[in-house]
Design a protein that fits this description.
single chain, two-stranded antiparallel sheet, 2 strands, 71% helix
């Protein structure tokens, strides 16, 4: 059968697949969200409104997966992690923005000015995991006192979140801290992490060890490199926090096992 060649004929409507409809919907939602965020910035307390709105959105998303109570606690832990970055920025004289929450990606806090040195860059990056580790440890302490699994589960998730952030690849916090390390420090730390993996069985430690070796080989010298003393201090701080979080994950997991 020959197809019609009439130029005035109306073409048949293209069938929209579910994937096409989903992508179209996401594109429209993203464009509307962009205009909404820009509009909120122009309002009084607009930045606070954006932080609150994105935070509530993250709670809503996680609540559908894990329940409201756990979602609330988990997002608060993320907030404390970001506030740790903000406090570190203030300590080194860098102006900080307001945190913005992104479901499944955590949150981000903008730098309104750049750090002066690799040391300051590491201080800012380290502040988040350090504050997050302290907050998670607090949850674990409450769980041990009250014997409520909720607090232990929240602590375990917090330990995992902050340990994951210490993976030495950009744009994670660990990648920013690692920018000033020497290759020899990476090799020693990676070997120690690999050994710690066989004790704690935390897979994040093994991943960090492998990526540490790669980062040590491919390391680019920062514009304002750390001194030898600063490199040594940051080596101890970084791998020490990795050890602590790995051990905390291991013990919190043991406490969450049935019959513990």
């Amino acid at each position: 059968m020959n197809e019609s060649t009439d130029p005035t004929a109306t073409p048949a409507p293209r069938k929209r697949t579910p994937l096409r409809l989903l992508l179209t919907g996401l594109a429209v939602a993203a464009s509307k969200a962009k205009f909404l965020l820009v509009g909120l910035k122009l309002l009084p307390f607009g930045k606070l409104a954006i932080t609150s709105l994105t935070m509530l959105t993250s709670i809503w998303v996680y609540a559908h997966m894990f329940g409201f109570e756990f979602a609330l606690g988990f997002v608060v832990l993320i907030l404390l992690h970001e506030l740790g970055h903000g406090a570190a920025m203030k300590a080194v004289g860098v102006e900080a923005g307001w945190p913005i929450f992104i479901p499944f990606f955590g949150a981000a806090i903008a730098l309104k000015s750049m750090p002066r040195s690799a040391h300051d860059h590491a201080v800012i990056a380290y502040g988040g995991p350090l504050a997050g580790a302290a907050a998670s440890l607090g949850c674990a302490a409450i769980g041990l006192v009250t014997h409520e699994r909720y607090w232990l589960a929240l602590a375990h998730s917090g330990f995992f979140l902050n340990l994951f952030n210490l993976i030495p690849v950009q744009p994670l916090d660990g990648g920013r801290i690692a920018s000033g390390f020497s290759p020899k420090s990476w090799i020693v730390g990676a070997v120690l992490l690999a050994g710690m993996f066989f004790v704690t069985h935390a897979p994040q430690l093994l991943l960090i060890a492998v990526l540490a070796l790669v980062s040590g080989v491919r390391r680019r010298a920062p514009m304002e490199p750390m001194s030898d003393e600063e490199r040594m201090r940051w080596t101890v701080r970084y791998f020490g926090l990795c050890f602590a979080l790995g051990a905390a994950m291991y013990f919190s997991h043991r406490l969450l096992e049935p019959g513990a």
